[in-house]
C-alpha cells in the first residue's frame, strides 16, 4: 500500500517524530519532499520569466496565428 500525506507548517521536530514512528516498521520506506508555498512558486516563476526577458531568450508572440506558425501548427 502507498500512502501520500500533505502536512502544512511542519517543523524539524515533527518530521523527526514521524520518521521515528515509521522506523517501527522495518519494511516502510519514507520519502519526504519539501514543497514551497504557491506564492513562493509564483515568485520563482516570475523571477525566471523576468530573467529570460532581460536576457532576450523569452519567445513572445503577437497573436495565436504567429505562435502556430512558429510551431508548425
What does this entry look like structurally?
By secondary structure, this protein is mainly α. It contains three helices and no strands. The model has no long low-confidence stretch (mean pLDDT 89).
Layout of SSEs?
Elements: H1 12-22, H2 38-55, H3 64-70
How many helices?
3
Helix content: 40-55%
The residue-averaged pLDDT reads 89
Cα-based radius of gyration, to the nearest Å: 22 Å
Characterize the largest beta sheet: strand count, sense, and whether it forms a barrel.
none
Low-pLDDT regions? none
What structural class do helix, strand and pairing data support?
Answer: mainly alpha
Q: End-to-end span in angstroms?
A: 44 Å
Per DSSP E runs of 2 or more residues, the count of β-strands stands at 0
Strand content: under 5%
Overall outline: elongated
Spell the H/E element sequence.
Answer: HHH
Brief summary:
The chain is mostly helical and 73 residues long. It is 49% helix and 0% strand. The chain has helices at 12-22, 38-55, 64-70.
Considering the chains and any ligands shown, give keywords for the structure.
mainly alpha
